[in-house]
Design goal:
Layout (H helix, E strand, L loop, with lengths): L1 E7 L4 E7 L4 E9 L6 E7 L3 E6 L4 H13 L12 E8 L10 E2 L2 H9 L8 H14 L4 E6 L9 H4 L5 H5 L10 H15 L5 E7 L3 E7 L2 E5 L21 H8 L5 H10 L2 H6 L4 H9 L3 H25 L4 E5 H6 L1 H8 L11 H5 L6 E2 L8 E4 L4 H15 L1
Helix pairs in contact: 1-3, 10-11, 11-13
Bound molecules: adenosine monophosphate (AMP).
Length: 396
């Protein structure tokens, strides 16, 4: 069965076409800078690679172009659109309503639109992707895979804020969690790799956005992002945890508007705010050349992660493995080493040589006598979405 996976963002559509259950990748690519006159299209199969600059006015045009390439006699991988049995859509916010992968119907679409209040940057483009996919692939089943779904298992003790109860019961102010597709995928991989029946795992998704999840027996029981993806770890341009009193001080004493505070916390803070760079590669280079702000930003990021490791080990009363994934987690040996340094009290011992090696596969980078396994697992969110869509269609 061929499943097209779509991750539709505000100005981009990432896609992969996969064959299930073999889990083979037929092609992948991205339409980027949608809405600009220098939109970029990349398309890659096992033998062909295309990179084009063109004008894609909207998501409709972007997906149409992708569909043309899929069908192209020279570089295409299908002969007819009807070969695509399902389109799996990544949807960031499914509120408390969706704890499972779901077939999309009118009601589901309405709910996804309604949850735009909770995810104004993400749900509207996710919705737009669904609408254009329905038009372009009318014979395919449309399936929504929610990033919040994996975190629906977080118990009340960890998903509520200590605010007046009615904000939770009437207004849905609670921890929703994000990056769920990734945390679920890598935790499942770790459980399988380590052959664990019962398991206590901490997954670290460290990319542009960063989050951590405590995964007990395969279920998310706590997570560092919360009501919004601003909470928790230090990220590319997001602050992560701050004292919320700072917001009042910024507004009352320093004259910021609420929009400016929002922009400050989400777009100008984190690594960018601390150093002037948002990409850890630049920060590592600068740190190596003696830039103290960059050195400190790495130390602060690792320190924040260590605190969450401590908290989640306590929450689970133990720890079998920590898993690094996403751009930073998979590639930065410096960040992995900084996080794991001086955690031998927790039974975490990193093998320095193994930490330097890079493979595309699961890698155990802990020493043989480390009580806690330290794994690097490349995240495959598109594969996870395709798997979930496949499982849903097989069971319905
Ligand atoms: P993602 O959001 O998962 O695509 O991660 C993107 C981020 O990963 C980039 O902004 C970089 O900060 C980081 N990254 C990617 N490659 C490396 C690398 N080789 N070393 C350090 N950081 C990296």
């Amino acid at each position: 069965m061929k499943i097209l996976v779509i991750n539709s963002g505000s100005s981009s559509i990432k896609f992969q076409l996969l064959q299930l259950p073999e889990e083979s990748l037929l092609c992948k690519g991205m339409a980027d800078r949608i809405g600009a006159n220098n939109s970029q299209l990349t398309y890659k199969t096992e033998t062909e690679q295309i990179q084009e600059t063109l004008t894609l006015n909207n998501h409709q045009k972007g997906l149409q172009k992708i569909a043309e390439l899929l069908l192209d006699p020279k570089v295409g991988v299908i002969q007819d659109k009807s070969e695509i049995v399902a389109v799996g859509h990544r949807v960031v916010q499914g509120g408390s309503l969706f704890s499972e992968t779901t077939l999309i119907n009118d009601r589901v679409k309405q709910e996804i639109q309604a949850f735009a209040d909770l995810a104004p940057l993400h749900n509207p483009p996710n919705y737009a992707g669904i609408i254009v996919a329905e038009q372009l692939f009318p014979e395919a089943q449309q399936v929504a895979v929610f990033d919040t779904a994996f975190h629906q298992s977080i118990p009340e003790v960890a998903n509520q804020y200590a605010l007046p109860k009615k904000l939770y019961t009437e207004h849905g102010i609670q921890v929703y969690g994000f990056h769920g597709v990734s945390h679920q995928y890598v935790s499942q991989q770790a459980i399988q790799y380590l052959g664990l029946k019962q398991s206590k795992i901490i997954t670290l998704h460290l990319g542009n956005g960063c989050s951590m999840t405590a995964v007990k027996d395969g279920q998310s029981i706590d997570h560092s992002m919360g009501f919004t993806p601003t909470n928790g770890l230090i990220m590319g341009s997001r602050s992560g945890d701050i004292d919320q009193g700072i917001i009042f001080h910024l507004v009352d004493k320093l004259g910021y508007t609420l929009d400016e505070v929002n922009n400050l916390i989400n777009k100008q803070s984190g690594l960018l705010g601390l150093t002037g760079y948002r990409d850890l590669r630049d920060i590592e280079t600068q740190a190596g050349q003696g830039n103290r702000d960059c050195q400190l930003a790495i130390e602060m990021s690792a320190y924040r992660i260590k605190k969450y490791i401590g908290a989640y080990t306590a929450a689970m009363n133990g720890l079998d493995a920590i898993v690094f994934t996403a751009g930073i987690g998979e590639n930065s040996q410096l960040m992995r080493a900084s996080v794991c340094a001086n955690l031998d009290y927790f039974g975490i011992k990193l093998d320095k040589e193994k930490n330097k090696q890079k493979t595309e596969d699961i890698q155990d980078i802990s020493t043989a006598d480390s009580a806690v396994k330290v794994l690097v697992i490349p995240t495959k969110e598109e594969l996870q979405i395709a798997r979930q869509a496949y499982q849903l269609l097989q069971s319905s």
